[in-house]
């Protein structure tokens, strides 16, 4: 038995979301994505100062929630010339997801405006 989900099936499932559920998802995702992007930007700036102890306050506020994502990313995409580009990749990815889901023509915004036809 093979359980594979195609992109078409996922998009079909997303299109079946009603307007209220789309609004709820947008309400939850907007602050989550915004905070995640902000923390990754802070990590980019902190990467310029490798002597800063990431496990001490106030730096731990940015290090603790992002390191579980950045660590494995660093294992896949090695630092380039000693520069850790993993937070840059995550800012780009999170910004893309934010735009696709929550932008003016984002999926969740379009679903909130969806009119059910008889």
TrEMBL record:
Full protein name: G2869 protein
InterPro entries associated with the record: CCB3/YggT
Superkingdom of the organism of origin: Eukaryota
Positions of transmembrane segments: 32-49, 88-111
Phylogenetic lineage: Eukaryota, Viridiplantae, Chlorophyta, core chlorophytes, Trebouxiophyceae
Keyword Transmembrane helix among UniProt keywords: yes
Alphabetical keyword list: Membrane, Transmembrane, Transmembrane helix
């Amino acid at each position: 038995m093979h359980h594979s989900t195609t992109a078409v099936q996922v998009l079909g499932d997303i299109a079946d979301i009603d307007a209220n559920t789309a609004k709820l998802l947008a309400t939850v995702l907007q602050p989550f994505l915004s905070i995640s992007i902000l923390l990754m930007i802070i990590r980019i700036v902190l990467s310029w100062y490798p002597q800063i102890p990431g496990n001490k306050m106030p730096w731990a506020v940015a290090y603790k929630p992002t390191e579980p994502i950045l660590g494995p990313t660093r294992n896949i995409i090695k630092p380039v010339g000693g520069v850790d580009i993993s937070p840059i990749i995550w800012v780009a990815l999170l910004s893309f997801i934010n735009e696709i889901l929550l932008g003016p023509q984002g999926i969740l915004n379009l679903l909130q405006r969806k009119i059910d036809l008889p």
